[in-house]
Amino acid sequence: MRRTFSVAALVAFVGSAALLLAPPAMAQTPGYPPTCNVADIPQDAGTHNVGDTFQVQLAPPCIFTPGSTVAVSVNGTSVGNKTANASGFVTVTVRAVSATQFEIDDPISVVARCGTNSAVGTGPSAAAGRSVTQTANFRLVCPGAGPGGGGAATPVKGSVAFTGANIAKWAAVALALIGVGAVLVVADRRRGRSKA
Fold first, then answer.
1. What's the whole-number mean pLDDT along residues 159-169?
2. Are the CB atoms for 149 and 126 separated by under 8 Å?
């Protein structure tokens, strides 16, 4: 009986100590932790040509609070504030005026690049309980550019542009081998005639 009492006392003591050492319960706020991903995972907004007018939708996983103000920039230049629609997204209209200029919405002129460009929106998200940022990358294909959309490679001054085919040295080696082979054949035939 004493042994049963001492085991029960030990269990009660350990349980009390665990409760005293446990961290206090924190009040939970709605949506904490967020049920959506607050990381800025860039979206792909497609490939477009100079002269195209297209829309870039900024749709973060933790949507912008509908009706809230979202600060938008394109290639690092602020293009003003947009209002998040009922779905919690922001749409930016882009017109590729040239290989070096975009007109955004109102119109606001922004520097364009052949290749990858980006639109970024930052605004409040009730789903995340804080401000979120969403990036959308899009590619601009320029006239005379390759399939990657960038401009042609600029050769180093004073050198010939590398085109991917460097056959000059291999052609010289092949010609040298053909010449050596021809000399050996001729020498072998002469040796054969002199023995006969």
1. 51
2. no
- Looking at residue 184, its amino acid is L
Separation between Cα atoms, residue 132 and residue 163, nearest integer Å: 45
- Mind spelling out the 3-state secondary structure of 105-138? CCCEEEECCCEEEEEEEEEEECCCCEEEEEEEEE
Distances (CA, A) of 30 to 27, 33, 34, 129: 10, 8, 9, 8
Tens-place pLDDT, residues 14-28:
444 444 444 444 444
Tell me the DSSP string of 34-88: -SS--S--PEEEEEEETT-EEEEEE--SSPPPTT-EEEEEETTEEEEEEE--TTS
Q: How far apart are CA 17 and CA 104, in angstroms?
A: 64
Say if residue 48's pLDDT is above 90: yes
d(CA 160, CA 153): 12
Q: Is 142 exposed, middle or buried (0-12, 13-18, 19+ CB in 10 A)?
A: buried
Residue 196 pLDDT grade (very low, low, confident, very high; cuts 50, 70, 90): low
Among 161, 132, 151, 165, CA closest to 62: 132
Does residue 153 carry a pLDDT above 70? no
75/139 Cα distance (integer angstroms): 12
Beta bridge partner(s), residue 120: 73, 135
Beta pairing partners, 102? 96, 110
Q: Can you give the pLDDT at residue 90?
A: 96
